[in-house]
Amino acid sequence: MTEKTHNIVVTSSTMSDPASLEEGKTRVQHIENHSTQPRLLSDMIIGFSDGLTVPFALTAGMSSLGSTRLVVMSGLAELFSGAISMGLGGYLGNKSEIEFYRRERHREQMEVDLFPEKEKEEIYDIFAEYEIEREASRGVVESLARRKELWVDFMMKFELELMKPEDNRVWVSAITIGLSYMISGIFPMIPYFIMKDATKALFVSIGITAFMLLAFGVIKSYMVATSRRQIVVGAIETLIVGAAAAAVSYGMVRGLDHATNL
Amino acid sequence: MTEKTHNIVVTSSTMSDPASLEEGKTRVQHIENHSTQPRLLSDMIIGFSDGLTVPFALTAGMSSLGSTRLVVMSGLAELFSGAISMGLGGYLGNKSEIEFYRRERHREQMEVDLFPEKEKEEIYDIFAEYEIEREASRGVVESLARRKELWVDFMMKFELELMKPEDNRVWVSAITIGLSYMISGIFPMIPYFIMKDATKALFVSIGITAFMLLAFGVIKSYMVATSRRQIVVGAIETLIVGAAAAAVSYGMVRGLDHATNL
């Protein structure tokens, strides 16, 4: 569990000035927030980044057929499929995480019971990575060896680098991701709801999506970036994702339409 | 970075018998694999779980319009949009992770330089969580205090629980996710390519997808589950995601089709 995909951890301190006078306070929030707010934000980011590209790209592609009705139907079909898939996917992902943690903790518990000396050596090894000699580490090792439960907790975190997942967040995460996807995905479709000309609607949809992608890119980059330059870069990058997906989608449907119409 | 979404870490040891005689060896692999193979596998899982549900659900919905041609066009449009969005999304996600790590390390470096005593206290606090007294911790703390770079590394991992992201994996991850999505997403569409009757094709598509979802569910659960029961549960859960998405998508397109045909 030492690595993540699509999961941008955001803490209050990330958004604060590094030279903040409230350094200490920020740092505290920083740690506290690690397991709560960042998760919510990262779930939203996951939902938004996909919701802002796929529904837009699909409807852009379908618009080349000239029927706003088809665009709306395929768009909504995708929107709900995607939201359910991402939401339930998030739910299952979190549940797997919890299973995995339980299994690994059980293994670790067993090892501490069966091979305590081997586990002690593993603590020495962890500290050795930081050039801490056995003598210096002994105090910590012996102290841990006296408290088995805490010892296992220590190994889980510092040897296996597994963090205890929060069972209660499973559904929150699923709903956050699914809703973020639907909310961000509905905007590019609005033009097709109200306009009759699919091509005109496409241009309005491009405008809406470009604006939302840029805004999202700026916000996202702002939360993780270190400089103004990176904010701009991040915003443009996010825009490129949507543009690339939409262009490919449009070309594909258009090409197929012509090919099958010959 | 202490938590992940959609990221199931899989290690060789997860698949090995806990009572394995090669316990030691497995454990070593276990740790080594944490940052490499699991990431690849989790990227594939992310691509597959979405690729097996959304394209299937969308095409199922569109099939209610009775034209395999429309199904194929919308399906392929979705397939490419989704793959590009997920792939580039993964790319940007990993890049943000790297940015975030750099920023946080810079902060930590600054704190170690400016407030060494405060940072020392933070090490004592980390150990205090495991009921390790100051006396026992002193050796480690003083030893770290003598090596600033390693001290910062230690704080990054043990205080902030941030793991150094691998820059070189950014593209690998993007391609893995995108390809997994396309490969898994193309299967449910095959019937629509070769059959003329959209409804008949739908049933074949359901069969293909159900089989793939179950297989995927079994494999995924096997890699993280602890018991046969969980494997079955996991497989059924994965199947439910696809079924729910497809049903909603079908009902939506069908309903809209009728409503707009009145």
Largest sheet geometry of chain A: none
Kindly state the percentage of residues in helix of chain A.
over 70%
Global outline of chain A: elongated
Oligomer: homodimer
User: Using only CA atoms, what is the Rg of chain A?
Assistant: 25 Å
The percentage of residues in β strands of chain A lies in under 5%
Mean pLDDT of chain A: 79
Distance between the termini of chain A: 53 Å
Spell out the key features of this protein.
elongated, 262 residues, mainly alpha, homodimer
Provide an overview of this structure.
2 copies of one chain form a homodimer. The first copy, chain A, has helices spanning about 25-35, 35-50, 55-65, 70-115, 115-130, 135-145, 150-160, 170-185, 190-195, 200-225, 230-260. The first copy, chain A, is mainly alpha-helical. Chain A starts with about 20 loop residues before the first helix and ends with a helix. Mean pLDDT of chain A is about 80; it is low at about 1-35. Chains A and B meet through helix 1, helix 2, helix 3, helix 4 and helix 5 of A and helix 1, helix 2, helix 3, helix 4 and helix 6 of B.
Summarize the structure.
Chain A is mainly alpha-helical and about 260 residues long. Helices cover about 80% and strands about 0% of the residues of chain A. Chain A has eleven helices and no strands.
